[in-house]
Amino acid sequence: MFSKAIVRKPCENMVKGITSSTLGLPNYQNALKQHAEYIKALEQCGLSVTALEGAEEYPDSVFVEDTALLTPHCAVITNPGANSRKGEIATIENAVKSFYTNIEHIQNPGTLDAGDVMMVGSHFYIGLSDRTNQEGANQLINILRKYGLNGSTVSLTTVLHLKTGVNYLENNTLLASGEFLLKPEFKNFNIIKVPSDESYASNSLWINDNVIVPKGFPKTLELIKNAGYKTIVVDVSEFRKLDGGLSCLSLRF
């Protein structure tokens, strides 16, 4: 169970964020409204939310998940794979210090975006992507082992981050689409198969027996409800324009 979250408000420069999307530029005012609703959803799940101010020098900084991995036993400050995002980690570390005394770091030449890391109990699956390399994954596994945790790598080819395509909904259940439906690493899980035309909704977010689902994906919403989960629908369409999803917008611990 989680009790806290850290978020960072969108900055006006988010329109300059990194994206492969063809959905157009995000609207800053709409993004502010959607972000506020996202915070309300986190609070509805029982979390106390720390909201950092926007950082105009870092257009992608609203996606705080990539900058740190907060485990039950330690915090790991990452080394983001995109050079334009490396400066984000300093202010995130300052925020994390309020909650953690055990703080570890991913060092060059290792790169790691925590959007590539999926926690399943005491095991962490680490996606090898354009943003997370083998050296970064090896460093993270060594850190985790210091604290009685463990990790393993998963290859990915078609999505930005591991959690773009697969997320853990507890109860030995994964929500997955595309290349992750047939991964041998996940063969022992119950898999809720996201329809290919709703693959964005693979990035739904389990928090304290609730699943936050992006607005506009009715088939996936129904599948999650039918699996017995309570759901909360949140519109994150402005963040989708920057390849971001629900998990990207917060650090939960």
Task: Outline the structure in words.
The chain is an alpha/beta fold and 253 residues long. It has a single domain (4-252), classed as L-arginine/glycine Amidinotransferase, Chain A. The protein is 22% helix and 24% strand. The protein has helices at residues 28-44, 89-96, 134-146, 162-165, 218-226, 237-240, and strands spanning 4-8, 48-52, 68-70, 75-77, 103-105, 117-120, 123-128, 150-155, 166-168, 173-176, 190-193, 205-207, 210-214, 230-234, 251-252. The protein has a 3-stranded mixed beta sheet with strand order 2-1-15, covered by helices on one side. Strands 3-4-5 form a 3-stranded mixed beta sheet, with helices on one face. Strands 6-7-8 form a 3-stranded mixed beta sheet, covered by helices on one side. A hairpin with a 4-residue loop joins strand 3 (68-70) and strand 4 (75-77). The mean pLDDT is 97.
How is this structure best summarized?
With 253 residues, the chain is of the alpha/beta class. The chain is built from 6 helices and 15 strands. The protein has one domain (4-252): L-arginine/glycine Amidinotransferase, Chain A (5-stranded Propeller).
